[in-house]
């Protein structure tokens, strides 16, 4: 749970271009156009890819979504959406409930630790069988640090070690990522230890008990993560210096409880880079530079979700966040949430008229929970329908390819455009965003050192496609063919859009 981090992107000068594509989607205009141009001066291109500026390795595990025990994972129609969205990773058993949850009994603790709900069908075994294996997802588990079953003390580390042994030694599920507790730096989390939310006690418990017991329990190598938060004074400096760990888990919600479309679209995503740079500095100071960073929860707000979380506005933010995570070399990331969490307009979400969107329901989920799920009686959208944020992941799946490398990219004289570039299957891929609500644009693109290409492909999700949801029609991305080009090519960016271009 975080405060907004304001970072403004400042882009510099030059514009021109050429070449084109033909649309492969009937009834849609071409997604790029223009005549070929044999030689285009470098300064004339609006977007320039710099293959010589090689950045971080691409980890496909940034394509992930959380799941939680309160939603029935055995229901039909769920896995196809994960596959279509290109998801590669997931996290279990939830957020704050993790520190009340006891995996052996699939239940929450007693007394003050009993708040919440665990669906009886959502056992760990069913989660693996019905969600993880069919989609081939990489799994991360958050073990209970906060409470014992009686809710009278902190969790017993042997319970966590038992889960590791069950998953990896007995069931051979090969769960590699494990975190000790959820957001234990925060007063909102369950912590029944003698010094709740104390970084020294947390560090000592991890170093002396959780880390050695959990590592010894696995039949295969595992990564054990600790909770981090650069905004909590004294937490990271203590934990990173005193705990034992193989990775760190960070959460990012830039809006807190106050939502604003313009902030979310234009300023929120770059804020995660500032946040990650703070963390990297802290790791360097602690002598743990290069430690893998796992962003266990990403969202736009941790308040009561409403219109914005169902809108193209959150989708534009989510895509930019993926670009920032890749550029920053993040190893793994999971959006909060895959399924589970819809609420109706009467449920208290933010449906202010200043927010763009058509829905009278909201939620953290990126896939529809289905008709009449979770009190969302007005949703009436079939289970597994891909909502706008999931559509962004679907488009981004044409950009994110494990083992590739991010490349430098410059954007000239287009303050409404954001761009990310990567190597891709022997060629290049670009992920472009038009943050302008009312104006489409044709953007010339040049690749340094490359004078021609035989073509490629373009995938687009935009405001017009989302707007069909006003009539409960949930459209997917369009596709087009990039024609052969000389000197440069021009990509059409519709209003409020995410566009991925692949070229050789």
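Sequence proposed for the structure above (504 residues):
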């Amino acid at each position: 749970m975080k405060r907004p981090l304001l970072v403004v992107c400042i882009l510099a000068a030059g514009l021109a271009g050429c070449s084109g594509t033909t649309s492969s989607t009937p009834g849609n205009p071409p997604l790029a156009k223009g005549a070929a141009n044999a030689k285009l001066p470098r300064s004339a291109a609006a977007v320039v890819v710099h293959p010589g500026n090689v950045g971080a390795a691409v980890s496909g595990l940034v394509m992930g979504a959380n799941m939680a025990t309160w939603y029935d994972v055995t229901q039909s129609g769920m896995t196809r959406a994960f596959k279509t969205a290109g998801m590669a990773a997931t996290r279990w058993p939830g957020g704050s409930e993790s520190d009340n949850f006891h995996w052996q009994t699939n239940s929450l603790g007693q007394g003050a630790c009993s708040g919440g709900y665990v669906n009886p069908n959502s056992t760990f075994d069913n989660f693996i069988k019905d969600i993880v294996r069919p989609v081939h997802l990489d799994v991360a588990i958050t073990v209970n640090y906060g409470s014992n079953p009686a809710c009278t003390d902190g969790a017993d580390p042997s319970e966590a070690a038992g889960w590791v042994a069950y998953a990896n030694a007995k069931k051979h599920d090969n769960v590699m990522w494990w975190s000790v507790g959820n957001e234990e730096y925060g007063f909102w989390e369950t912590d029944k230890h003698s010094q709740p939310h104390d970084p020294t006690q947390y560090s000592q418990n991890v170093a002396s008990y959780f880390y050695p017991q959990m590592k010894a329990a696995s039949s295969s190598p595992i990564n054990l993560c600790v909770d981090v938060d650069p905004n909590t004074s004294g937490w990271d400096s203590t934990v990173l210096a005193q705990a034992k760990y193989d990775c760190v888990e960070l959460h990012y919600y830039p809006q807190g409880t106050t939502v604003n479309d313009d902030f979310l679209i234009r300023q929120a995503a770059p804020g995660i880079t500032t946040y990650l740079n703070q963390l990297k500095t802290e790791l360097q100071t602690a002598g743990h530079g290069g430690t893998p960073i796992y962003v266990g929860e990403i969202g736009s707000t941790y308040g009561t979700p409403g219109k914005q979380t169902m809108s193209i506005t959150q989708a534009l933010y989510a895509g930019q966040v993926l670009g920032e995570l890749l550029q920053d070399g993040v190893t793994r990331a999971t959006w909060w949430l895959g399924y589970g969490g819809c609420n109706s307009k009467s449920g208290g979400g933010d449906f202010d008229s200043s927010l763009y969107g058509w829905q009278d329901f909201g939620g953290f989920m990126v896939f529809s929970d289905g008709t009449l799920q979770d009190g969302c009686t007005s949703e009436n959208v079939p289970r597994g329908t891909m909502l706008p944020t999931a559509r962004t992941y679907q488009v981004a799946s044409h950009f994110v390819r494990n083992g590739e490398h991010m490349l430098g990219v410059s954007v000239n004289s287009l303050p409404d455009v954001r761009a990310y570039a990567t190597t891709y299957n022997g060629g290049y891929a670009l992920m472009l965003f038009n943050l302008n609500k009312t104006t489409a644009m044709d953007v010339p693109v040049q690749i340094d050192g490359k004078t021609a290409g035989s073509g490629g492909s373009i995938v687009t999700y935009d405001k017009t496609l989302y707007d069909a949801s006003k009539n409960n029609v949930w459209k997917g991305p369009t596709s087009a063919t990039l024609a052969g080009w000389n000197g440069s090519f021009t990509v059409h960016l519709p209003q409020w859009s995410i566009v991925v271009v692949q070229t050789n």
